[in-house]
Structures are given as C-alpha cells and as structure tokens.
Design a protein that fits this description.
By secondary structure, the chain is an alpha/beta fold. The chain contains ten helices and five strands, in the order ααβαααβαβααβαβα.
C-alpha cells in the first residue's frame, strides 16, 4: 500500500468509522452489534487502512494478505471499514444492510460479497480456517500473511486451542491472531463465567509469539503491525488487544445491555456528540 497514513490520519479514519456505525445503529430498522463493533473499530482501521496488503481495485491479487473475521457478528464494522478504504459503497451498505438478498448481511458471506475471504458467524471456527489458509500458503511458498480477528469470548471453545496448537506445531509464522479482549460475553463479563486469565500466558504456552497492547491506542497498533515477525518465521503471533466494549460512548461502555441494540434519535445524537468530544481531546 503506497503512502501509508500516519497515526493522526488513522485516528481520523477510526472516528469516521465510529460515526458511521452509530448513524447506522440509529437509522437501521433492527439491531446492530454495536458494542463489539465499537471495541474493534480501531483494530479494523489499523488493519485495513495500514497493515493489510490489500488493494480494493484488485481484490483477488494473489499476493494479498488474507483476513478472516472469526467474530462474524462484527461484520458491519468490517463492511464500513472496507467502504472507507474503497472496497464498497457506504450508501449501499446503509440502503441494504440486513435485508433479504443483501450482500451486506449481519454475518459476512463470501458468496454474496467478493472481497470477503470467509463466511463466518459460528464462533470458534475462524482460527481453524485461518490456520488452514496459512498452512496452504506456507506449503506453496507464498509470502502473504493470514490475519484472524476473534472475540475473547469465543476463545472459550476448544476448536480455537486445537487450531492454536496446530499452528504452532507447523511453525506458521505467517499467521496472525488478533484478539478483541474486551472481557465481555453476550450476557455477562467473561471472567464471571469462564476464567480466561492469565490470558496471554495461555497463548504463550501453546508456542505463540504474544504481543499485549491497548487495542484503542493507534500508535501501539501501528507499532505491533510494523514489528510482526517475518512471514517465514516459525512462530505464529497473537496480538492480545485490551479493549472496551462500546468504546467512546459512555452509556454503552462495559454495559451488558449494549451487546446489540438500536439507538433512538436522542441517544444517537448523544453518542455522536460524545465521540466527537473524545476526538477533540486527542
């Protein structure tokens, strides 16, 4: 990607993403998984605007990096991020999101939407698919990376750790797992139900290179992407991103009730004002 944006520009992109997410949540006739969308907005921005080797004008280029959204319910955040990058038309997302026959469903579908690598939504499966893709690339001596974004809640599932063990065993240094560690599930805080801590150490014990960072600090996200091991290394990497569900909107942050929902006009205006105020103090 020529002329990569700097941190300040990336923060502007992330603000634009949040604004469009909240506007959709306030105008769509249905629910949006807004809490988890806001927790990954900075991560998505860093990936699609900076880190991933992708080209919206050539979505099938063989050398492109592959991206798997294991956390499939954050699909609209991915759609809007990709629209900002130039893949899709944002107005088309707003017009058709969630409707029967729409390419922009509540979970991503590669058949409906070219540019999406995997159809996802059943949690716990994304890392296994990404591991297979990374293994294939290594066997074919291809130099792209495979990125997989997961919610921390889905890492309760055994399939994730089977994939993690396999990736380490086969030395898949071209595989990057990104964990949205917001410490919330749909109906409770994660540590109240499933004890995941010491979380980063679990990945280390499976033979992964682990980077712990603030998933809302664009400087840290850029640094982590800049310092990934070479794709030919023999250790997969896990970026454990500490995040806040509902980030930037006071009445949503760490609020179980905002796993998914819709905004009234009054609440939408309040939410938009809060993210604008948060942007101005950066």
């Amino acid at each position: 990607m020529p002329d990569k944006p700097n941190v300040a520009q990336l923060e502007d992109f992330a603000y634009e993403l949040r604004k469009k997410l909240l506007t959709l949540c306030g105008t769509y006739n249905g629910i949006v998984h807004i809490g988890g969308d806001l927790s990954v907005a900075d991560i998505f921005t860093a990936l699609f605007q900076y880190g991933l080797n992708v080209d919206p004008k050539d979505i099938g280029m063989p050398t492109r990096d592959r991206f798997v959204l294991s956390k499939g319910h954050a699909a609209v955040c991915m759609y809007i991020t990709m629209a900002i990058r130039g893949f899709f038309d944002y107005d088309e997302i707003v017009r058709t999101y969630g409707k029967v026959g729409s390419a922009f469903g509540m979970h991503p579908c590669k058949v409906q939407l070219p540019g999406v690598e995997c159809s996802t939504g059943s949690l716990g499966h994304g890392l296994a698919m990404a591991t297979g893709m990374a293994m294939s690339a290594k066997q074919r001596k291809q130099e792209h990376r495979v990125y997989c974004l997961m919610g921390d809640g889905e890492t309760c599932e055994g399939s994730v750790w089977e994939a993690a063990m396999t990736a380490s065993s086969y030395g898949l240094g071209n595989l990057i797992a990104i964990i949205d560690r917001n410490c919330q599930l749909m109906t409770t805080m994660s540590e109240d139900l499933i004890k995941l801590e010491p979380y980063p150490d679990k990945w280390r014990s499976f033979g992964w290179n682990v980077v712990e960072l603030d998933g809302h600090d664009m400087s840290e996200l850029v640094a982590a992407l800049d310092h990934l091991p070479d794709h030919g290394s023999n250790k997969p990497t896990a970026l454990v991103c500490s995040t806040v569900k509902g980030k930037g909107v006071s009445f949503m942050e760490r609020n179980i009730g905002w796993h998914a929902g819709s905004l009234s006009e009054e609440d939408m205006e309040k939410a938009l004002a809060e993210i604008a105020a948060g942007r101005s103090v950066r």
